[in-house]
Amino acid sequence: MQIIWKDSVDAATYEDARVGRVFNQRRPERFPLAIVKATCEEDIISAVKLSAKHKCRVAVRSGGHSWAAWSVRDNSILIDLGNYKTVEVDTETCIAHVSPSLTGRELNTILIKDHGLMFPGGHCPDVGLGGFLLQGGMGWNCKNWGWACERVQAIDVVTADGDLLHCNASQNQDLYWAARGAGPGFPGVVTKFHLTLKPYPKGGFRSSGYLYPIDLYRDVFNWIISISPSFDEDTEIAMVSHYPEGEDKIKLFVLFVTMKDDPEEAERALRPAQESRPAGTSNEWFCQEDSLETQYNNQANANPEKHRYCADNAYIDNDADVPAVLEEAFTTLPHRKSFALWYSMNPCSRRKLPDMALSMQSDHYFALYTIWEEQSDDARCRAWVKNIMAIVERQSVGAYLGDSDFQIRRTKFWADQNAKRLMEVRRQRDPQGRICGYLDQQDMSGVDGLENVHEWKL
Asked: Using CA atoms, how far apart are residues 27 and 66, in angstroms rounded to an integer?
């Protein structure tokens, strides 16, 4: 087990261990006592016991993709899982046994190539499965296939006391319940996820895309909202506003990605959008051959490495005038690399969810990904996000953990009863607050956990 102590190594080695795998280049001013580079479950157990010996907290890093760098905490031992990667696939049961730092791309590369299977992991290719699944997992075609965490059949967990437990619907049910939606407040360290897989579509992916001038914002948004609820069940629908490469004006891009076994099925699925689309596209394509790998590459280009990020999000109230609520966000981007996203969640958002911590959703998921390069631009870009969210949040029912920063804005992440139950599980399983939990202002939440309230109502 490799341990990098803050006071025992040179500054460059420590800094690389502290934030070298943090995706957001807006680095936090927080400093762990040590970083443990784990390679197996035994290392994780030893690291948790080491934290007890030193009377300090434990933080965990799977992929390093959280915008607020939740894994980097003062006076903690950071367990970095980047070197702990394992995957086993049972093709008879279609279950994969995977470690948390494995990314969606890494897992699906193995599954598709060797087994003709897939897992609806994160859209960004380098997102680790650990944080993604604990937050709920808004994965591929979530609007129809449901949340990725619903495919978690079991987990292996190192508790705050250093015990290794297997958790599922019949044993250690409280941890199993919490793991599907607790986010960074999960009171343990997951060492393995046991995941139900899907067949990879024999016809691969196919997509249709429609690029519009931003002047047609209302017409396009109203159209996409009207057709989404009853659209084909194997088709994902998203809309973004962005600056296309080489263009000086914001454009609105609507993307349909369908996952079918043959091209004719895909064409039938995508035809209703082609026939009902508003006139006025500046570019478009229909039922183009696509793939998961191509989609990963597109996502990587949209979320470039070595950039500064400020993200926020909201589930917009189903009864709101959604195009009106989001108009300023979609039409006033502060930087050419930034984008605003609307993601269709209906009909998944209208069904009863399984019994799990995750409990917040609506028909309309909205997120801002503000991206820039220079530190001198921090104040302007962050102020734009804050101002937009001040408008949007009053028409929201809550937010998704994965695109949130608890230090900046308080809102609701769970139904009230789920939040209460989750915080009780935290207190019962980790009464001393060994696991760092939710990073709120001044990192004070501790054993109590995160307050589940709309700040603007206080």
From this structure: 12
Is-contact 85 102, C-beta < 8 A? yes
DSSP string covering 111-135: HHHHHSEE----SSTT-BHHHHHHT
Closest to 335 in 3D by CA, of 300, 362, 308: 308
pLDDT digit string, tens, across residues 204-220: 999 999 999 999 999 99
**Whether the Cβ atoms of residue 74 and residue 59 lie closer than 8 Å to each other:** no
Residue 178 structural domain: 87-199
Chain segment 55-84, per-residue pLDDT in tens: 999 999 999 999 999 999 999 999 999 999
Domain final residue pick, 167, 184, 199: 199
Residue 150 has pLDDT above 80, yes or no: yes
Question: CA dihedral in degrees (61, 66, 67, 70; nearest 10)?
Answer: -50
Q: Is the pLDDT of residue 1 over 90?
A: no
CA–CA separation, 310 and 26 (whole Å): 9
| Pairing, β 76-80 against β 34-37 | parallel
Residue 458 has pLDDT above 80, yes or no: no
- 160-171 as b/e: b if 16+ CB within 10 A: bebebbebeeee
Q: Where residue 169 sits, what CATH number does that domain have? A: 3.30.465.10
CA 329 – CA 252 distance, rounded (Å): 12
Tens digit of each residue's pLDDT (9 = 90 or more) over 294-336: 999 999 999 999 999 999 999 999 999 999 999 999 999 999 9
Q: Please give the tally of structural domains in the chain.
A: 2
* Residue among 418, 455, 457 nearest 185 (CA): 418
* Interatomic CA distance for residues 116 and 124, integer angstroms: 21
Q: Which amino acid is at 49?
A: K
Asked if the structure places residue 418 within a domain, the reply is: no
6 within domain boundaries: no
- State the chain's mean pLDDT as an integer: 97
The domain spanning residue 242 has which CATH number? 3.40.462.20
Which of the four pLDDT bands, split at 50, 70 and 90, describes residue 373? very high
Question: What is the pLDDT averaged over residues 216-239?
Answer: 98
Residue 42 belongs to a domain? no
Sheet bearing 87-90, strands edge to edge: 87-90, 95-98, 188-196, 152-159, 164-167
Bridge partner list, 212: 252
Counting residues of the chain whose pLDDT is more than 70, the rounded percentage is: 100
Q: Please give the Cα distance from 187 to 290 (Å, whole number).
A: 40
